[in-house]
Every structure is written in structure tokens, then in C-alpha cells.
Inverse folding.
């Protein structure tokens, strides 16, 4: 065994007559300080670089081919990828308004400009009434960033300008869309659609990182708080599970009534709209009824939605459907929402955790039930189609409608709580939102559907009468 002393003696001998090098305590302390300062400087330089943003910036567009992205659930046009290889230029007009310029790299592709877009409407901003409670503010910010917000513009919108190209896009462009993806801050998409056989079909899709310096500045401008307060939460998917949600600060209950809710476990699964297109992203077999989601007999996974914004079946997303495994009861309340909004209704669905027997509650609030669209079951996706969260916009919305109805002014909230009013991470559970409408033939009958992780499938159909 070689002792420290003998190791030192050997090194001295090897040095010959030279004395061993000694470092004093003062030099060690100074060296440590210098190293810390250096590392801090590197960190600050990286931070500064990440949040640098010019008034005109060229931003890389990522484009994926069919072979790159076989799980693409979008309705693809027969002209998909025939007008690709573009670059994106983002131009700042003022503190919150920006232009997005899709610049062509060849003569056949048109130049398309999405002009004067108010990004205060696409950046997380909690309702004022949530800022009085740290837990509510955290949940509002988290769900706003984690949910998809896609806004569309018809080709003849004042916000759309199209020039050049071989004429196809000028004649056939039907809709342009911008999407803030349901991922960490910065992951965005731009999409171009045409019409084929009277159906909307996508012929271009590009992913990009919105400049974080501009994102930071817009966030601070509209919220009047430092971005660094919520930076980690917005950019790194920090899970706020267990946060107390004080619903009394979101609305005042006027009255309530337990209602008879029909939830037929043997009813066949319904699929329409994006659920019909996303069959390949639900990684399960032999699911035919709602009961199959909660029986525990099926291995149910979903293709994970991952950066920059596409589905990956190789890294499947799990579920925790046992937490809503047994439906218990339903309650309807008349409420007075915060923020001086008109009175509306709230639905509470209560479930039992089939592993712990804990009572968990799904609350959908700030909805005028009598104003819901009247639709047949197969068109449920055209009704109220909303994510989970507080003060969140719809998943998909026309930009002009967004301008008329700011999310932070909305009385709507949708949360899943345990028996101690603690927020349950619905993403981990694999529940992303709800759809609602009135029955086409019976305007007193409400239909309510639960949407799975990434809205890949519907996982439940509930109905009740308004009396």
C-alpha cells in the first residue's frame, strides 16, 4: 500500500533538487474566485446570446419529408412539399407586433408575408385575478405554454400578402396558420393550406424557434414582471403538480345541483376531426368502447409530441387513467366568474382513483351551457373544443376571433384536482381537454367529451339534461 507521504517523497525524488510546488491558501481562494467569476461570465454570455434579438432576423425553418415524419397526422395535400425549401424572416414592428416573412429560394415558390401580428395574444398572460394567488398564476402560465395555440388567417386576410411564384399559391392558397406548439417556450410552426375536394389540405409545414429575446420582451411587456421569475417553468417543462388551486378566487358559486350523468362504458368510441386523423398516434389495440380505457386490461400509450413539434412513436407517452378510473357523479353550478364577467355555468365530474379510492374532480367552468352549438354526435369537434387550464384560448382559432376575445379576459377554466384541491398533472394522466355541444335534436341535452393526450382520441362521452 502506498501512503500519501511515500507518494510525495517519490515525486520529490523525481524532481531532483527542486523543491515541491506549494500553493498557499490565499492563492487557492483567489483561484477559486477567479474560476467562479469565469464560469459566471460564460453563463452570462450564454444567457445574453440566447436572448439577443434584432429587429430583423433570419430564422432557420425545419422542414420534414414524408419519410422523415411518417406519423404526420395533418391532412396532407397532393402538392405537399412541392413548394418547400423556404427561409423565415421575422421583423419587429413595435413592442408586440411582428411580421413573419416566408422567403422563397426559387422562382416557382411564392413569397408569403404574415403581417402585423400581435404576439401579446400568443404569449402566456395569466388573468389579473390569478395574480393574487401564486398557485393560480403558476397553473395559468404552465397550461398556457403547454397547450397548443394555433391561429389561422384566410388567404384574403389583411394580414396576408402573397407575391411571385408560379401562380399556384396565389390562386390556391386557402389558409395560413401560426402555431405556438404545446411544448416549451419558443417552439412554433407555420402551416399553409389549400382546398382539395372541398377539404382543407396542408401543402407546407415548417418548424422554427421563435427568437427568445423577443419572447422575453413581449412577456415582460404584457405581464409587467421579470421573465426570469418564470423562465425555468416556461422553457424546461417544470411540473407544478400538487399546487393548491383555490377555485374560490376564480368564481363565486351562486347555487349547485347534483345531476344525473349518463356515461355508457359499453358505447363505441367516437372519432371525428383530428381524432380520425390521429389513429396512428394512439399506440393500443382492441380499444372499442369507453370502458376499455379504464378496465386496466389494455396497454395504452400515445406517440409523444416532442420538439420541435412532431409525433414520435419510438418514445411512447404513458397514461394514468386509473386516477379517473371510476365515474362517480356530476354537479352543475351557476357561478359568477371573477373579472366582472357575466354569470355562467360550471360542470364538475367526480371520479374515483381505482388504485387508491381517492376522489378526484374535473371542473369545467365559465361556460354558457345554453349557448353551446347544436350538433350531431359525429360533429363534436365543431363544438366548444378547449384545453385544460386557466384563461386559455382554444386549440384552434381564427386570428380575428382571437383579437375580439383575449384569453386573459376569459372566465373559462378547466382543472383536475385531487381531494385536497391539489392540481393533478393532466398531461401525465394523458388528458388534454374537453369538447362540448348541445344535442342537435334536443337542445336541453348536453354532450361532453374528454380528449386524450394531444387530443389523439376521445376517452369518454358524458351527457346530461338541462333542467
Amino acid at each position: 500500500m502506498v501512503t500519501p507521504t511515500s507518494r510525495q517523497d517519490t515525486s520529490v525524488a523525481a524532481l531532483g533538487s527542486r523543491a515541491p510546488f506549494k500553493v498557499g491558501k490565499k492563492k487557492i481562494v483567489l483561484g477559486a474566485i477567479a474560476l467562479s467569476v469565469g464560469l459566471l461570465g460564460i453563463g452570462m454570455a450564454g444567457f445574453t446570446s440566447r436572448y439577443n434579438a434584432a429587429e430583423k432576423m433570419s430564422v432557420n425553418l425545419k422542414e420534414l419529408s414524408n419519410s422523415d415524419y411518417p406519423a404526420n397526422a395533418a391532412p396532407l395535400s397532393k402538392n405537399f412539399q412541392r413548394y418547400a425549401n423556404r427561409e423565415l424572416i421575422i421583423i419587429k414592428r413595435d413592442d408586440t407586433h411582428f411580421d413573419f416573412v416566408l422567403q422563397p429560394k426559387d422562382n416557382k415558390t411564392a413569397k408569403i408575408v404574415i403581417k402585423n401580428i400581435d404576439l401579446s395574444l400568443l404569449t402566456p398572460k395569466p388573468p389579473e385575478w390569478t395574480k393574487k394567488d401564486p398557485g393560480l398564476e403558476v397553473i395559468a402560465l404552465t397550461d398556457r405554454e403547454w397547450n397548443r395555440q394555433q391561429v389561422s388567417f384566410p388567404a384574403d386576410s389583411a394580414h396576408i400578402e402573397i407575391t411571385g411564384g408560379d401562380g399556384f399559391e396565389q390562386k390556391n392558397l386557402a389558409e395560413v396558420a401560426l402555431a405556438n406548439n404545446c411544448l416549451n417556450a419558443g417552439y412554433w410552426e407555420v402551416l399553409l393550406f389549400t382546398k382539395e375536394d372541398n377539404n382543407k389540405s396542408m401543402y407546407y409545414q415548417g418548424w422554427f424557434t421563435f427568437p427568445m429575446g423577443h419572447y422575453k420582451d413581449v412577456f415582460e411587456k404584457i405581464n409587467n414582471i421579470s421573465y426570469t421569475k418564470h423562465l425555468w417553468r416556461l422553457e424546461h417543462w417544470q411540473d407544478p403538480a400538487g399546487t393548491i388551486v383555490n377555485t374560490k378566487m376564480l368564481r363565486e358559486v351562486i347555487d349547485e345541483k347534483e345531476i344525473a350523468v349518463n356515461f355508457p362504458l359499453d358505447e363505441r368510441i367516437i372519432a371525428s376531426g383530428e381524432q380520425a386523423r390521429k389513429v396512428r398516434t394512439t399506440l393500443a389495440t382492441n380499444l372499442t368502447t369507453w370502458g376499455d380505457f379504464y378496465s386496466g386490461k389494455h396497454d395504452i400509450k400515445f406517440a409523444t409530441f416532442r420538439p420541435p413539434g412532431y409525433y414520435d412513436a419510438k418514445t411512447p407517452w404513458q397514461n394514468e387513467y386509473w386516477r379517473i378510473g371510476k365515474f362517480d357523479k356530476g354537479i352543475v353550478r351557476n357561478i359568477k366568474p371573477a373579472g366582472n364577467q357575466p354569470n355562467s355555468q360550471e360542470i364538475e365530474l367526480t371520479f374515483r382513483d381505482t388504485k387508491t379510492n381517492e376522489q378526484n374532480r374535473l371542473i369545467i367552468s365559465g361556460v354558457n351551457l345554453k349557448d353551446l352549438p347544436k350538433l350531431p354526435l359525429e360533429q363534436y369537434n365543431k363544438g366548444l373544443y378547449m384545453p385544460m387550464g386557466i384563461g386559455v384560448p382554444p386549440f384552434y382559432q381564427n386570428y380575428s376571433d382571437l383579437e375580439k376575445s383575449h384569453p386573459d379576459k376569459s372566465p373559462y377554466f378547466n382543472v383536475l384536482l385531487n381531494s385536497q384541491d391539489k392540481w393533478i398533472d393532466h398531461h401525465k394522466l394523458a388528458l388534454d381537454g374537453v369538447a362540448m355541444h348541445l344535442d342537435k335534436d334536443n337542445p336541453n341535452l348536453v354532450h361532453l367529451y374528454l380528449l386524450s393526450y394531444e387530443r389523439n382520441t376521445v376517452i369518454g362521452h358524458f351527457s346530461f339534461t338541462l333542467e
